[in-house]
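Worked Example 4.2. Read the sequence first, then its structure tokens.
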Amino acid sequence: MSTISQAELYRLIAESNARGERVVVATVAHTRGSTPQRRGAKMLFFEGGGVAGTVGGGCIEAEVWAEAREAMRTGAAGLHKFSLTADEASEEGMVCGGTMEIFIDVW
């Protein structure tokens, strides 16, 4: 998966809203240390199960996906902190070791 342009982001959100579907937008708000994406990276989660963009890949996206499903269900936005500590990273075969704060919002 790759990063998503602003124009594509808003086009996809508008199309989903026109269909009456919710979209969850996950945005990397802050990073510290080694992380797979930089601040501002976005990922969209659609009601039908589709996704666009990326906030990192692997384990981090699985965790963000779980939070996105909960936000889709409740409609509640929130800032979530994800740790990619060296111990956890080595267990998962990752090269990261930092932390990420990701804002999850429902549109």
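Now turn to a second chain, presented in exactly the same format:
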Amino acid sequence: MDVTSFTIEDAATALHTGRIGAEEYARTLLDRAAQFASLNAFILIEPDRVIAQAREADARKGRGGSLRPLHGVPLAIKDNLDTEGMETTGGTPGLRGNVPARNAPVVQRLVDAGAVVFGKANMHELAFGITTNNRAFGPARNPWDPERIAGGSSGGTGVAVSARIVPGGIGSDTGGSVRVPAALCGIVGLRPTVGLWSQSGIVPISHTRDTAGPMTRSVRDCALLHRVVMDSRVPVPAAAPLRGVRLGVPRADFWADLESETQRLCEGVLEALRAEGAVLVEADIADVMRLEGASGFPIALYETVVDLNAYLREHGLPMDFAALAAKCESPDVAGLLQGLASGGAIPEAVYRRAMEVERPALQETYRQYFAKQRVDAVIFPTTPLPAAKIGEDDTVMLNGRAVPTFPTFIRNSSPGSVAGIPGLSLPVGLTSARLPVGIELDGPAGSDDRLLALGQAIEALVAPMSAAC
């Protein structure tokens, strides 16, 4: 029995029925974490703490206590979510020694459901990037090709799940930080509708844009973690029938200038959907990229100063935003945040316009699109290309041209993030170089369960991917 291949559902069933004990399972995954330590999925694992949690799960079962949904299931937690008694660094040296007194509410919901906190996953420094090429803690390495990026900023969680070190984990997403690593590592990632998951106890970028989200190896597992965090006793939604489902295909902005194999694999999904009776509505989303550009960064870069200062105060840490920025080591993050701290802050008037004019217009654009086109979701490649090489932080080659790395990888995931709507990325296959490609569904605000049901149906159309390692 290869327990490293367990999904969350598989693991929970085996642990509930006694096919395997929680301590045995935890020790096997700790051994696997040691075997693949070179992938640098984790900033911190405390094996004694993991074993203690697993033993408590076994003791609970031995006492005949009622077993909770995630009884004994180890999960990776991105290192910007507070964990009680366990260092939370946000991937930056300035937060070394930050040991929260309590779990973030998201983490607490998982623990209350019986999950084992396996470790704190590597991430792009302070979540400000999509490579997880972290100068302070080292790069997270893609299990499909360790010379390539895992994506970011939740790259460590993506690696840990893809490499079968854990069956699932939690990331956070401001502009694509769950979905980009999910796509590049060949797993599933959900960005919930903003506000559904608590933002408390998470090292922030932007309260308007941030949300934590699940990362797993199946859509059903994503749905299970979503239900747990939402504290819902409603069953995980079943796969939706695809016949008659209407999906928007916004060609002009989201399907343009794709790497050739990304295009081939994603077009193959559209063909399979047509064969199942889905209705593909070729219609663009009006003015979407301009509105995202006018609102996304002004909101994030204004709020990060306010929100990080608030986090530092709430945790009793002896520094402010400027002091934290001064300790950043990754060049891209240090340059950006130190610039904000030394006179380059976003003017309040620019922020107010983004919040009061451009973002509402972007949200209205999406509302009108879903209503007018009568579509359940839009569908598009999660990223325009597969994983770049580690070190290609500034530019990457796309269709024979050097293009900027960061905006290229978040091009498709960012607009929905700014609008606050949910997005689900799922793997659709491998390129000839055996690099994963993901496809994304974005839906109206609050349609998370519908996206998960559609995602399960689409997942069933795609040939299962082999293991990365």
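Notes for the reader: The chain has two domains: 3-288+351-461, 289-350. The chain has a mean pLDDT of 97.
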